[in-house]
Structure formats: structure tokens, C-alpha cells
Write a structure and sequence with these properties.
The protein has nine helices and 14 strands. The protein folds into two domains: 198 residues, DHBP synthase, CATH 3.90.870.10; 93 residues, Rossmann fold. It has a ten-stranded mixed sheet with strand order 7-1-2-6-3-5-4-8-9-10, with helices on both faces. It is an alpha/beta fold. The chain starts with 5 loop residues before the first helix and ends with a helix.
Length: 319
């Protein structure tokens, strides 16, 4: 295959055990043949991802689910009918033959059908599951453009399928259906929409339920120390060596390195969040200050990512 047929080339690379970077509607993923243990191990090595931290298997459509899941409860099929293709990952009991490399050694597997047209073309041409965590170093800011992937891996960047900016910009919502339904990670599908199908859905307590991607306390962090700050503290008297992510314009007299106004629309804020964090990280500031976001359902996934990013930076400062 030649570069003139990028999907064909990507399939050939995956079948030969190599990695491919692929766009989804959430973030760009670092993809491998989910049936190939050696290829899956290459994901862990390139990302610096801890062994035992499970991956999400991407499928072309719901018809492929029985090849990966031993049990497919009726509620899973109802959720799939409503939200797939889309930013929803379902955790189900794994089928025989699904490897520990994909599942992190658990008896469950995470499955998702992405809606991005390039991802769909790749999955349909490949014909089987593709494991694809975010295409970044473990614990760092996820990529939402092809340029972010190149920035992350440099000369180690695998073959990269171009797909433009990711439409959603935050990772998928993760729901466990391996027992009591649990919301493991908020994301592109609001909890209230899920509950129209599941009924009341409880948010998992820390450490409860299957391990799932992006649910460690510290995650999604820029290299520059990031802290959350109350709106009232965003004044002109901030230190000169700070970069700020806010929901409004800079006050008169702001003398810091960079101020980004992300606006007040949560969908737009989410779409831009990781690109904004990367821009702030490049500003050469001593620290990044992020204005706390509203404590409402529309901001759940954003609050989750910012809290984990701040926790990661705090942990590094204490190390």
C-alpha cells in the first residue's frame, strides 16, 4: 500500500503489528490490533503507560460486540442503539480469548464505536477490534489535532491518519455494566442522557468498579504546574509569570504571560480545552491558573479533567 491509500496503509501496518495514530470524535488515539499482544505492548511502551491499565477496544459497529463480550445485557444494547457511534464506552464481561494486555488483567473489557468518519473507514476496512488509548505520553494532555500527536511523539510518531480537529475534544463517557451500572468517567455523553436509558446511574467512588482509562486521581496534566483558582481571585494583581485559562476577558492591567478566554459555553470550552492547555504550557510561564468552572451537570466532564490535571501537578510538586 502507498500513502495515496492511507486507510489501506494503516490497515497493513496494523496487521503487521505496528502502531497507527487515528482520529476519533473525542481525541486522537494510538491504535494497535487488539488481537496482537505484541502490538498492544508497543502502545504501553510508547506511551509509558503502566502495565495493567486497561485499553478501550474500538469497533466498527455493535454487531462486533459479541466477539469481545461474554455477556451483553439488554441495557447495553439500548445504550448502543442510542449513543453509538459516539463518545460512549461500555465496560462488559470479556469474552474468551480477549487478552490481558487489552483488559489490564481484569475480567472486563471496554468497548466503543467511534463516530469519526476516518475512524469508521479504518475500522470497517480492518474488520476487527482496534485498541486505541489517547495518543500522548501517559498522564499528559490528550491530543485533539494531528499536530498535537506530532508534538507529543516527535520522531517516534507512528503513521498518522489525518482527521482534522476532534469534534468533542474530551474523552468518552465510560459506563460499567459488569454488575450494577456505574458511571466510571464523565465525558461526551451527559449523565442525564444516559439515565433516560439506564435509570438512576451512580457515579463510582474512587477505586470502585473495574479499572478504566483516565480514572486515576492524577491525569490529563500539562508539564507546567496547574492550579484551579476561584473567579474572585482573577485580578490584575496576579504574578507576572502566570498563564491563565478563564471564562472571560483579562482584567485591565493583567501583566502575566498569557490569558486565554475560553468563554462560557461548556461545549465550546470542552472542544478547546486540551488545545488551550497545550498553548498555555508553551507560554513559558512559571505556573498555569485555571478559573474554576460551574458546579453544574453541563460542566461535569470538564471539572473532572481539570481536577485530575491539578491533582497530577500537585503530586509532581510533592515528589
Amino acid at each position: 500500500m502507498s500513502a495515496a491509500d492511507p486507510i489501506g496503509l494503516a490497515c497493513a501496518l496494523l496487521r503487521s503489528g505496528q502502531l497507527v495514530a487515528m482520529p476519533t470524535e473525542t481525541v486522537y488515539g494510538l491504535a494497535a490490533n487488539a488481537r496482537d499482544d505484541a502490538a498492544v505492548a508497543r502502545i504501553y511502551a510508547l506511551k509509558g503507560r503502566p502495565v495493567g491499565h486497561p485499553l478501550i477496544v474500538h469497533l466498527a459497529d455493535v454487531a462486533q460486540v459479541p466477539a469481545w463480550a461474554a455477556e451483553v445485557p439488554a441495557v447495553a444494547l439500548r445504550l448502543a442503539a442510542r449513543f453509538w457511534p459516539g463518545p460512549l464506552t461500555l465496560i462488559l464481561r470479556r469474552a474468551a480469548g480477549v487478552s490481558d494486555g487489552v483488559t489490564g488483567g481484569q475480567d472486563t473489557v471496554g468497548l466503543r464505536v467511534p463516530s469519526h468518519p476516518v475512524a469508521q473507514r479504518l475500522l470497517r476496512a480492518f474488520g476487527d477490534g482496534i485498541a486505541a488509548p489517547s495518543a500522548n505520553r501517559y498522564g499528559r494532555v490528550s491530543p485533539t489535532t494531528a499536530a498535537h500527536v506530532r508534538e507529543e511523539f516527535g520522531a517516534q510518531t507512528p503513521f498518522l491518519l489525518e482527521g482534522g480537529d476532534c469534534e468533542v475534544g474530551l474523552e468518552s463517557t465510560i459506563v460499567s455494566l459488569a454488575g450494577e451500572p456505574l458511571l466510571l468517567r464523565p465525558g461526551g455523553i451527559p449523565q442525564a442522557d444516559l439515565e433516560q436509558i439506564t435509570g438512576p446511574l451512580r457515579r463510582a467512588a474512587p477505586g470502585e468498579g473495574p479499572r478504566a482509562p483516565g480514572t486515576t486521581v492524577a491525569h490529563y496534566a500539562p508539564a507546567t504546574t496547574l492550579s484551579l483558582i476561584a473567579t474572585a481571585a482573577l485580578t490584575a494583581g496576579l504574578p507576572t509569570e502566570v498563564a491563565v485559562l478563564a471564562r472571560g476577558p483579562a482584567p485591565a492591567g493583567f501583566g502575566g504571560r498569557l490569558w486565554l478566554d475560553a468563554g462560557t459555553d461548556p461545549q465550546r470550552y470542552a472542544h478547546d480545552l486540551y488545545a488551550n492547555l497545550r498553548q498555555l504550557d508553551r507560554a513559558g510561564a512559571g505556573s498555569i491558573l485555571v478559573e474554576s468552572v460551574p458546579d453544574t451537570a453541563a460542566w461535569d466532564a470538564i471539572r473532572d479533567r481539570l481536577a485530575r490535571a491539578a491533582a497530577a501537578c500537585a503530586a509532581e510538586d510533592l515528589a
